[in-house]
Amino acid sequence: MIRCAMDRHEPTSSERGDSKIGPMRTARSVIQPPPGWDIRPLESVNLICQKEKGMSAMPAALDGQSVGYYFAKILERYSYARHNLEFGGKHEIYNYFDGLKKGLEASAAVKTRPAVRVVASYGKGNWATIPWVSFLDSRETTSTQRGTYVVYLFREDGEGFYIKLAQGVTDTEHEFGAKAFDVLAKRAEELRSAIPELAEKGFDLSGRSDLGASHRKARMYEASTIAAKYYPANAIPQDATLFADLEHMLAAYEHLVTSGLTLQPEPDEPLALVGTWRTIKTDIDPAAEQIKEKGAWASAWSFRLKEEAQKHLKIPFTLYINGGGGQIVARARVSAFACAEDANGMKTPWPDITEPALHDITRFGPGVHEGIKTWLKISSIELISPFRANELPIATDLSTPANLLNQNAFGYVYEKLDVVPQAYEISPTVKHEVMEPEAEEEPLEFQWLVEETLLPASLLEKMVATLSGPSPQILLAGPPGTSKTWVAQRLALYMAGGRKSAIRTVQFHPSYTYESFIEGLRPKATSTGVQFELTPGIVLEVVNSMAAAGHLNDPKCPYVIILDEANRANLPKVLGELLFLFEYRNEAIRLQYTKEFKLPSNLLFIGTMNTADRSIRSIDAALRRRFDVFELTPNSEALTNYYSKTGQDSRAVADGLISLNAALAGDIDRHHTIGHSFFMKRDMSQDILRDIWERQLFPLIEEYFFDQPDLAGDYTIERFWPRNVS
């Protein structure tokens, strides 16, 4: 006879005197079930049990159980399920957590507090190492990643569980990195002093707890503890006691929330915005010129200001402008703003200071996210000495370090007062129809290219051969930090014979258009109104320059266009007729406005592509066929060569990089690894390595594992660099 797993009672590990349910090995290895348990898939066991006992579906069979029952079953079964069963579906563990959640929601402690919501989780996509059930007061937080809340946390080994008043750890870790432990502990101590009555109710106010795990996430949970009570698996109290403890904890939580003690004090500096505007350095002239003439300029954005931010922004406020690479390169002063009511966008509220082409439109394009949702009235704009965006104090209730530079949203920070403006004068807007000639440059040696890029000579020879052939287009693809842009720039300079004037770099982005790259009609204000003028894009500008210099189809004078981050644009839409011309350089084709156009044989294209953002396989097949793809992978040898020039020992750094990428490739794939350029520092030390990890690498790894946060928690600097690299 088959025993029904959910119905049979087996002694808990504590009752047996064991420390584990069975012999635990590594994740994904097999944990032996308790004696007498049927180890077939739960679905088959459930069906057999239902047939033998006339049972209905599993949820109905669990109805009416005590919350203590569910706590006991989770402790008893979770570890085995986590290591042996598929995550998805309505399996046994799902039913236990669902039953526990419903039982807690039905308690008087929760029902009398309408602002409190019960949330249970045992993972997202993968089993969590430490499952939990939380109580979130909407006046304080709506996520366990931030704020303060009450939570049940289950020990990883199944020996017991805690009820805690705790803090969200994710946002704090993003903001403070390694210092997050101290920040959480200090904040817990401050809040603990406001609820001494919990000690009289039997709660531990020492801040100590033991979740039976040593990984970083578990230690963060422990550091965040304000108050706690532990229930061992073999001594779970009756529901009346569990509910009484929950009432005491929720009452203390409510006191902290309603008294405002959980609110972080706002900095004295006013709230400000961060927006990404990669072409700011070329766009700033006409904007500044209009501000000088009319006193202001209307700037359109495709995303809304958050409602909460609108309440706290004090006119005038500052907009910091990310010019790319996380660098704040400019700032603007905003004297007014207006937001659309829905995704359809809105017309400009200030026609007199808006570019004529934007007067009567509500959208940048037909795409779902292309509605104009925010207008900013800019009263001043200036370039500033660049600094990293992460130096700005983040408004943590509105932004996190991970989304501060989101391409599709504003970031929210507090104003930085020590910003230094650059010397800057408004210059007239110039059409770059002809590139200015430079003094003659000496051709570069191939060995220079090898030394500059630190790539194998054999690989570079293949790139040069392609760019010297009949189809001179290549794509450099690889994960972040593999020096794609650097290699593209050095390769372009080598191919152009050292002539910097023969090279143009284009930063592709989602709003980049055919009109900017090939040709298009652009509005021009005249004395009689607005006229549309045919204006060449980057490609035609370069071809015009080649013709003016007498270099068309001259193999001795190559020109190069670098397409940086090519995969971020709608490539077929931007490239247009070039898809044909890339393959048939000797043939002419009609463009949208130009009757006949040929692509010169000596105009080369070098593209870069971040494979963590988009796979090569997802690029248009016709386009992919016209580019030779060279994969740039994390290169520990390049790191070794670099350090040999600076006299540093690279072994520890390189070994850690190899181990890190082996782990990432195993957990995800080779496209989501870490490049060597992150570590190319002239004075590498343990402190610098830790800064790199906390500010650049770990946020990137968390992005890789955005739907599997528990896996991200397994990645620590100590795991990959256990010894000092200095």
UniProtKB/TrEMBL annotation:
Q: Where is the AAA+ ATPase domain?
A: 470-637
Task: Give GO terms: molecular function aspect only.
Answer: ATP binding; ATP hydrolysis activity
**One family name in Pfam for this protein:** AAA_5
Classification via SUPFAM superfamilies: P-loop containing nucleoside triphosphate hydrolases
- InterPro entries per the UniProt record, alphabetical: AAA+_ATPase (IPR003593), ATPase_dyneun-rel_AAA (IPR011704), McrB_DNA-bd (IPR021961), Methyl-DNA_Rec/Restrict_Enz (IPR052934), P-loop_NTPase (IPR027417)
Highest taxon of source: Bacteria
Region Disordered: start and end of each range? Answer: 1-27
In which residue ranges is the amino acid composition biased (Basic and acidic residues)? 1-19
Name of protein: DUF3578 domain-containing protein
Q: Which organism is it from?
A: Dyella dinghuensis
